[in-house]
Amino acid sequence: EPEVTQTPSHQVTQMGQEVILRCVPISNHLYFYWYRQILGQKVEFLVSFYNNEISEKSEIFDDQFSVERPDGSNFTLKIRSTKLEDSAMYFCASKQLNNEKLFFGSGTQLSVL
Amino acid sequence: QQQVKQSPQSLIVQKGGISIINCAYENTAFDYFPWYQQFPGKGPALLIAIRPDVSEKKEGRFTISFNKSAKQFSLHIMDSQPGDSATYFCAASMKRLTGGGNKLTFGTGTQLKVEL
Description:
Chain A has 113 residues and is mainly β.
């Protein structure tokens, strides 16, 4: 089965630094998402992206966050100035048009020190 | 209104038994209810999903029961196996009128352990 690929699997950064999390969605998918999961808690929606623009974002997705699809295959999440509370597992997901099935990557564990 | 409440938080079942996880929602605009299975270190994977026009959906050992009037739905795992030990999340979404795909609102998760 095709997979959503995320890199890196682990990222450690200092508070205040910028990080970029990378994702390669499944090739024929048109909707892209970022979710996060703080240790032991539920999975939370951050942002959805369709047709080269943000279609919806949550309250968590403030001005420190941005997403980009720089080319035909990658989808990135940038956190401009990381905070301790940004430490979480970040999941990229994608889906096809007219199909509810959402495919998740294995995640990037972000640790902000 | 956007919340999905899930119980229990953890569950221990003997091999061969039935595992039951329950979820409740408030927002009647939700029209898609998936269950996700997550193993440690992995992303959630879709297990089974239901729409509110049916009361039950079965796929192999997994069944969703849906009660629209009570705004509740549950996952039943028949003949539970040690390999079913994972965290299970219910979720819900609603159709957007415009723009991109539907965001999922997840429940808080249930850690299932199936013992031999």
